[in-house]
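Review form for a predicted model. The reviewer records the input and the model, then writes brief findings.
Reviewer: anonymous (R2)
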Amino acid sequence: MATQQVTQRELFGQAKPRRGHPVGGPLFTDEQCRQIAAEYATGIGVTILARRYRVAELTVGRAVRRGGGTMRPNRNANPVSDDERAAIIVAYQGGKSTHSIEAQTGRSNETCRRMLVEAGIARRPRRKHALDQHYFDRIDTPAKARWLGFIAADGCVTVSTTCLCLKIGLEAADREHLLCLEADLSYEGPIPIYDRANPFGEGPNHKQRCPRAYLSIQSNTLCEALMRHGVGHRKSATLLPWTGDPELMRWWWAGYFDGDGGIAIPSRRSEWAFSLIGTKECMDAYADYITALTGSIVRPFAAKESPPEANSWRIQHSGLRLPQKIAQRFYSDQGGSTPLRRKQELADRLLAEEPRQADWSGMSIEDLLELHRQHGTWEAVASHLGTAKYNIQSLAERREVHFWHKRPELTAQKLLDLLAEHGSWNAAADAIGMTRKGLCAIRHDRGLISGRRAWRHLTADKLREMHAELQNWKAVATALRIRAPHLWRLRRRLGML
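Model under review:
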């Protein structure tokens, strides 16, 4: 007998009241009860009939008996035949779900699952979209290391009552980067764009719209692998640097820079700026990595825009040669990894820059003095060479010739005569081809100046004596009436660090 699914409204519209039940209750007519009994007699189970007519299983049993049918004593009265069992297994292995098999065979969803378990057939994961859940189980390629660093910077693992979820949010313009991550993970889920208010504080741009692209992947296996590599829940203030294969650390830092790094376009030529923000532990490790890579000493400092409990630190370096070395390391040879396109374009512009002076580090002190005579001031010489004045002073120190070296012919009386002739110490310094600091050092040696600025010309031996007496550098800075960073720079200039 052909069956036809009806709605609850159609079933209850012609229901008649029975004794002991209120009028309008969910009861079937005699004709409907006979129809249910006929369907039950064909082998359809009570569970399926209850779902079909949207009533309880007990109500179906009453309808069958009222319609003249007889209830089967148990489920074994209508056992699943071997042919039905084989058909269920073939259909499931062919890609159909247990719900589809239920509609096809008339066997309930629970029965289909029981047949699969008894046959030893592994259930497919209940995923709406395909996913390589074991992608991060082992970090053994540059692509995996770069994605791991990127997720450590811009991603997070959230914990819910049902499963773990990986979430990443980027600007809408960087949605292409999330599509590349999807491709490597073999994931086919959506990446929606939400146009929301600016979430960063209550400044003048707080009400400005901020469209962002979001990637959300629910997978316990994938997220547990990320957590084993240090990407955990609420990691902003607790993230530690990855401690994996040293050969792949280059790609991990490149991915981390894709997420939390910044490349500033110079306002003037040859003045690029690289910056990176993260926890104190990550920034210390990054500083050691950059020092080992370039030989330049970089130090992290606390980010002013974040409270101390946020553990937010920043490293920034500017110029041309140092940023070029970092860009060369992170963005020249990809090794099969995928960089953030926006930063890749900035890095290409940076690497295309050429310094004004191909290599001024080989210049002699005579060449520098000749440039000073041509340009008039050391600031002008530094601008001509495309570097900072401090670099020229460092070059002179490496030549063992200081701009403030002690010239024996400049006695105290000679210095006073120069002051009377030129009217100021700055003019006198320019007249004799010295820096203002160099002349200040000679004046201090000749006893012409003293006071708070005398600490700039202390020797390393004198600082060590003060430290041995006062036991710590903070006390030394207090005794000299200077700030600790000034003392640190002095010790660095004297080769004590």
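Findings: The CA atoms of residues 298 and 332 lie 22 Å apart.
Further findings: The first helix runs from residue 8 to 13.
Recommendation: see findings above.
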